[in-house]
Amino acid sequence: MFTRKSITIALCAAFSLLLLLATSRRLGGWTAIDDPLYQSGGHGHHPPPPPGHNGPGPRPHPSENPDCAGYPIPDNILVIMKTGASESFNRVPTQLMTVLKCVPDFLIFSDMEQKIGGYPVYDSLSNVSAEAMEGNSDFDLYRRQKACPVDVEGCNKQGNPATEGWNLDKYKNVHMAEQTYKMRPGYDWYVFVDADTYVLWPNLVHWLGKLNPNKKHYLGSVTLIQGFRFGHGGSGYIVSKASMKALVDENPGVGQKYDLRAKRECCGDYVFALALKDNADVSVEQMWPTINGEKPATLPFGPWHWCHPIVTMHHMNSEEINTFWEFERRFRREQIASGKPRPLLIKDIYHEYLEPKLKREQLDWDNKSDDRFYVDISAKQWDEGTLHRMKPANEYNELEKVAHRSASDCEAACKSLPPDDCVQYKYEDGKCAMHRSFILGKPVPKKEGAKQSISGWDVEKIKEWTEREKVCDKIQWPNLSS
Ligand SMILES: *[C@@H]1O[C@H](CO)[C@@H](O)[C@H](O)[C@H]1NC(C)=O
Ligand SMILES: CC(=O)N[C@H]1CO[C@H](CO)[C@@H](O)[C@@H]1O
């Protein structure tokens, strides 16, 4: 028999549990609701979660995941990630363990249907026309993967997956857009990225919340092919609801329409832009440097890359993605604790990545200096690229005249110039290179004697400039007619 007392205790316990659950849900959603910087877009019609799923795979919803504490959780943005079966197991698991963990809904497309850790990976090429595939060697990899009796990496030893993967890739983008809109028609924003793209989710959500998805938008980092402007795929491009509708809804079978065109062209991101232009009359809008193709080690810091929020980076391997994710979450926690959260700016990446490592000279290091070169023209045959980026000799100061002699001459010449001309240098094999922005760079193979690469930063100039530009009075979002 239950006593009156035990019933009361049980009721109290049940009530506390309910209260606890309600509070924890609310805590998870806190920033999306209360943080003025991070209000989600909320443009009316929201898609229901896919039936039988709590998001796209076997995981807690971001609102219930402590790893995503302080992250905005909007329900109007979909991330679409493109990969290929020859690389998917090297890239996707890390994305799932980090960035995608806090993205409420996403789709992963590849060139083969798979499951990775229980998450579906769709075949973007399943609807390519037979006409385009037949007798087309671009699809050799596709066919080999399908017929592979063991793991894809094992089968790819018989081919050249890097080149073959590239040739196959260009057929994907328009089909992905078509399939995506059919699977998930209700979103305001469709964010197309590669599996080595890092998405800065809190920044992205904040930014898109300010824009109008009912306008035809196609936001990217502009690249040119034969004078035609398109959004670089690895940097990621963002397509509004209105553009997706005009492209897919109003053009049944749009994917197949571009299969033969893709065969003639180099790249899928370019073909996608052609399709958007032809069918929806939408052209890319330049969002660089906020949509960015560099990464922390290659970002050129300086006046053009400083108070700018950044929403994507590219060419990030698994370790780089994981390391940045830790930084991004720490930054976000600190911002929330400060009571006045602001977006992560490019300067914050400088302070985290480059500032602690700045030094006068770094051996066997490549700092990407290539704005201006100093060489002894008579010493040997220099390539056009080098000769093209030299000052006329009559503009040299005394130190510039001898900059090509050694790493320390190169350094001294750099120091003698204003920051607009040089804040870092690199010396290698009789060539002094100077640069106007500061970059972390990377190690290069060790070489002996003259061929050794030596890079250096003009630490004083950089410190003086960064100290002066310590506070960003104005956050420089891209200009957008919205
Ligand atoms: C596949 O292509 C056909 C022909 O263009 C089209 O009618 C159909 O809607 C496409 N299917 C999907 C799932 O996109
Ligand atoms: C990291 C990197 O790519 N560094 C550059 C440094 O400068 C040389 C020019 O001498 C470039 O060729 C490198 O690419």
Automatic annotation (TrEMBL):
<dbReference type="GO" id="GO:0016020">
    <property type="term" value="C:membrane"/>
</dbReference>
<comment type="similarity">
    <text>Belongs to the glycosyltransferase 31 family. Beta3-Gal-T subfamily.</text>
</comment>
<comment type="pathway">
    <text>Protein modification; protein glycosylation.</text>
</comment>
<dbReference type="InterPro" id="IPR026050">
    <property type="entry name" value="C1GALT1/C1GALT1_chp1"/>
</dbReference>
<dbReference type="InterPro" id="IPR003378">
    <property type="entry name" value="Fringe-like_glycosylTrfase"/>
</dbReference>
<dbReference type="GO" id="GO:0016263">
    <property type="term" value="F:glycoprotein-N-acetylgalactosamine 3-beta-galactosyltransferase activity"/>
</dbReference>
<keyword id="KW-0472">Membrane</keyword>
<keyword id="KW-0812">Transmembrane</keyword>
<dbReference type="Pfam" id="PF02434">
    <property type="entry name" value="Fringe"/>
</dbReference>
<feature type="compositionally biased region" description="Pro residues">
    <location>
        <begin position="47"/>
        <end position="60"/>
    </location>
</feature>
<keyword id="KW-0547">Nucleotide-binding</keyword>
<keyword id="KW-0808">Transferase</keyword>
<keyword id="KW-0328">Glycosyltransferase</keyword>
<feature type="region of interest" description="Disordered">
    <location>
        <begin position="38"/>
        <end position="68"/>
    </location>
</feature>
<feature type="signal peptide">
    <location>
        <begin position="1"/>
        <end position="24"/>
    </location>
</feature>
<feature type="domain" description="Fringe-like glycosyltransferase">
    <location>
        <begin position="170"/>
        <end position="247"/>
    </location>
</feature>
<dbReference type="GO" id="GO:0000166">
    <property type="term" value="F:nucleotide binding"/>
</dbReference>
<keyword id="KW-0735">Signal-anchor</keyword>
<keyword id="KW-1133">Transmembrane helix</keyword>
<protein>
    <recommendedName>
        <fullName>N-acetylgalactosaminide beta-1,3-galactosyltransferase</fullName>
        <ecNumber>2.4.1.122</ecNumber>
    </recommendedName>
</protein>
<keyword id="KW-0732">Signal</keyword>
